[in-house]
User: Fold this.
Amino acid sequence: MAFGKLYTYDGNPRSTGIRVVAKANGLDLEIVHTKPPSELPEDYLKINPLGKIPSFVGADGYELTEAIAIAIYITSQNEKTTLLGKTKQDYASIVRWMSYVNSEFLPAIAGFFRPLIGRDPYNRKSVDDSLKATYKAIGVLEHHLLSNTFLVGERITLADLFAVAIVSRGFEYLFDKKWQQENPSVTRWFLTIHNQPIYTSIVDKVPSIEQPLKNEPPAKKDQAPKKEKGQSAKGKEPAPKAAPEAKAKEVDNEEEEEDAPKPKPKHPLEALAKPTLVLDDWKRKYSNEDTRSVALPWFWENYKPDEYSLWRLDYKYNEELTLIFMTSNLIGGFFTRLEASRKYIFGAASVYGESNDSIVRGAFLVRGQEATPAFDVAPDFESYEFTKLDPTKDEDRAFVEDQWSWDKPILVDGKDRPWADGKVFK
Assistant:
């Protein structure tokens, strides 16, 4: 006899984790195909008045809605389970990460891909805002997983199984090979969990894409030629109005629609007056010319201190840094999460020293006179200290030139630390 009925449909990301833990606990769930808003079983609204999924009805008649609550209930049927952690703090952290991906990541990624595949009306600005929100949300996971193998503790928990199913939407539509290389922590975690027998018992295919979806309107479906007003084919009933198109859209809808994010406010730096120094001109000069002999002289000749400011960047937790490549990945992840400010900043950050004895330092050009509006788009920006530089001082100018040239060691606490690796944000 089945333990209960789970109302959902195959591939629903909020339900996958529930099905995984049910399988792990040896609980048989009867899957009742339910796909809002059009494909609802009879009397489903009595179980879930909002008509959303998933919902659970136990063999004993117990009814439960909301994905996180159902996942915890199914997991707790095994009194010896380790999937809910060892301590109350573990349990709270598990709920935290489940709530985070469900309320922060899934609505954002849905707002990105649904309009691009024709499930929602397309608006370029809304899709772009959702893309930025997706990168910001996944950036929090990347930062956390840089120093943690799993979301909570040292072993797989319900948080991992639930979150991987949610994050898989990103790997289906946005996270291509290039993104995966720039975000190795999330990628490593995702593949680790996805390839566990407990997970592959339900989901056997790891999503993979060569290119992310482009922010452009989806191709329109073929439409029948329009007739003149009041005209119909001879001997036939008048053609129906717009109802069929609306019906088709209903069938395509999924649960993410309920949480599609609202358009977000513009970047605060957009309010500044248009600068005379075009940042893209400097970025091209830096990319295409020798740094010391050509690019930097051009920069100082065209730099406008009333339009831009210069900042020194220092990582606050250098004592925690280990291997050089991991530290370089940390910088790369931070830069990825700065995407929303790309139009307003340029800079470079480098790793100096050697494995297990290194520091991160850099220099940035920022539109305006404050650092926070440019950098707080990245959730981990508070891990860095920003110090304003004075371009009239020779030592500050030299610091900027050295940070953008990568050809000199730096002196820290009386010790020369050679340049080891670096990344440019441009």
The first strand starts at residue 4 and ends at 8. The longest helix spans residues 88-116. The radius of gyration is 26 Å.
